[in-house]
DUF306 domain-containing protein (Palleronia abyssalis), 181 residues
Amino acid sequence: MRFAFCLIAFALPVEAASLCDTPDSEAVKAAIEGRWTLTETLSLENETESMMRHPDPVPITIRDGRIETPLIDSLIGRPVMLAMADAPYDVNAVDDILDATDSAELADLVSDTPCGPEGLTQLTATLRQTEGVAAHGAMTLLPYFDDRMLVITELTLRSDETVLFLTGAGYLTPLDPAVPD
């Protein structure tokens, strides 16, 4: 009797590297460099309206210590440097943003982390006054792992007609290389 033996190899998922307690911002920037997909919920408020928006996922590029997003590109037309956050978010501040944007489920996506946001090297892209529609505020990355992170956006947008407060909570995952931009 002949038996055929087959060797079956199961590809186990590669475990993501935690970025907790990594105080070197350059090491964190190197770990997260690449192309990402941002899925975000935005809360928009002005003096008369308050609304939530769930835009389609967008590609994000982190390269050479800079972040490039469609929002930043529409406001200033170039990537923005990432720097250490001056006032990092603590767990209460993150929870407040997640609640304000009806995005509490995002906390579950990073719940296997060995630390809270205080243990992360948080990186911020700060927008200082822009021309046209004036924008002021920041987009902050909370890189829990080298394959997923939270994003908090807090901007004030001013035009001659109105002032708009934009608060966003998002989730970044590596961009699938099979998906074109």
